[in-house]
Amino acid sequence: MKRNILFIILCFDVVFFSTDNLMADEKNSDVFVLEDVVVSGELTRPTKQTGDSLYTGTSVTKEGIDLLGTPAKTSVYNVLDILPGLNVESYDPYGLSGTDIRIRGLKGAYTGMTVEGIPNYGIMGIGAREDIYDMENMESVSLYKGASPADLGTGSGNRGGSIELQFRRTEEIPGAEFSQSFGSKEFVRTFLRVDSGKLPTNTSFFGSYSYTDADKWKGKGDLGPRNHFTLGLNQQFNDNINIDLFYNFNESERHFFKSLNYEQADHIDHGDNYYDHYNNNLLSDPKENINFYDYNRGKFINRDFMSIIDINISEKFNVSLKPYYSTENAKYREGQGGFPVVGYTEKKKSGVLDKIRDLERYGVIPELSFDIS
C-alpha cells in the first residue's frame, strides 16, 4: 500500500514540474508581430442589401452575374446560387436543361418571379420560367425571402419568397458587346448586344441575340439549340413622360435526362446508376422503346412584350402603367411506363405521351404614387 502511494506522489511531481517548465518556456519564447497587410484595388460588390430593414431582400448586381460565369448566362436560379440559404440544382453544367431551387426548404414552384414588376409564371408545371432570359441583359436580380415590397407582384405565389428582375437599360453612348464561349460536350455560346446611345430625339434602344448549344453529359441527345432575342427602347417626350418598351423571345429545343428511381439514387455508386440514361437506339421490345432518347424531348417558345409608361403629373404625383402580353408554346414527348386510355379497363399501357402547351397572359398593372409630406 505504501509503495502504491509513493508511486502516485512521484507521478504527480513529474507532471507538476513538467507543466511548470513548459509554462516557463512559453513565457520566454519570442513574440512575433505581423506587419499590416494592405490590399488595394476596386471593390467588386456581387450582392447588396436593401436599405429598408422591413424587407428581407438581397440583390445580385451585374458584377455578381458576371462573376458567376457561363451557368448564370441563361438561368435566373443559377444567378441566385451565390446567396446563402438557397439550394440550387442544375441538371447540366451550362443551365440549358432546367434548374431547380429551394428557398427556405420550399420548392421553386412556390416562389414568385417578376420582371420590372410584371409577373412571370406558367402551368404544366406551375411556376416561374427562369430559363427564358439572357442574363447579360439584366441589371440586377433581387430575392426577398420574407416581407416583400408592396409594389412587387408575386406571380404564382411567395411562400418560398419573391424574385425581381430589372432590365439593363440602354447605354448612354453607342457601343457593342460581344462574347464567345466554348466548352466540353460541344458547348458553344455566342452573344451580341448593340446599343444606340442617346439620339437627338431623346430616343435610345438596344438589341441582342444569343445562340447556345451543347450535348448531354450522359446519354445521346442535345441540350439545344437555344436562340434568344431581346429588344429594348426608351423614349422621353419631355420631363414628365418616359416610356420603356421591352421584347423578349426565347426558343429552345432539348432532349431530357432520364430520372433516377429511389433505389438508384440510394446506391448511386453501384454499377452504372450514376450514368443511367435513355436508350441510344430503338429496341426489338416495344415496351422498352418508351426509354428511347428521341421519344423524350421538347421544344419551347416564349414571347414577352412589356411596357412601362411613367407620367409625372406634378412633383408629388406620379402615374405608372405597365401593359404586358406573354405567350408560351411548347411541344414535347415523354415515355410513360403506364397511363390510362379512355375506354380501356385493363392494366395501364405504356407508350409515348405527346404534350402541348399553348398559354397566353396579358393585362395592365396601374400604379399611383404621391408624396403627402
Summarize the helices and strands and which ones pair or pack.
Blueprint: H1 2-28, E1 47-49, E2 57-61, H2 62-67, H3 76-80, E3 86-90, E4 99-103, E5 106-107, E6 111-115, E7 118-119, E8 138-144, E9 161-167, E10 175-183, E11 187-195, E12 203-213, E13 226-236, E14 241-255, H4 262-266, E15 297-314, E16 317-339, E17 349-370
Parallel strand pairs: 6-9
Antiparallel strand pairs: 1-2, 2-8, 3-4, 4-5, 6-7, 8-9, 10-11, 11-12, 12-13, 13-14, 14-15, 15-16, 16-17
Describe this structure in words.
- This protein folds into two domains: 47-167, Beta Complex (Ferric Hydroxamate Uptake Protein, Chain A, domain 1), CATH 2.170.130; 175-259 and 274-370, TonB-dependent receptor, beta-barrel domain (Maltoporin, Chain A), CATH 2.40.170.
- The model is unreliable at 1-26 and 50-54 (pLDDT under 50).
- A hairpin with a 7-residue loop joins strand 11 and strand 12 (203-213).
- The protein has helices at residues 2-28, 62-67, 76-80, 262-266, and strands at 47-49, 57-61, 86-90, 99-103, 106-107, 111-115, 118-119, 138-144, 161-167, 175-183, 187-195, 203-213, 226-236, 241-255, 297-314, 317-339, 349-370.
- The chain has four helices and 17 strands.
- The longest helix has 27 residues, at 2-28.
- It is mainly β.
- The strands form three sheets. It has an eight-stranded antiparallel sheet, with no helix packed on it. The chain has a six-stranded mixed sheet with strand order 1-2-8-9-6-7. A three-stranded antiparallel sheet has the order 3-4-5.
- The protein is globular, with a radius of gyration of 29 Å.
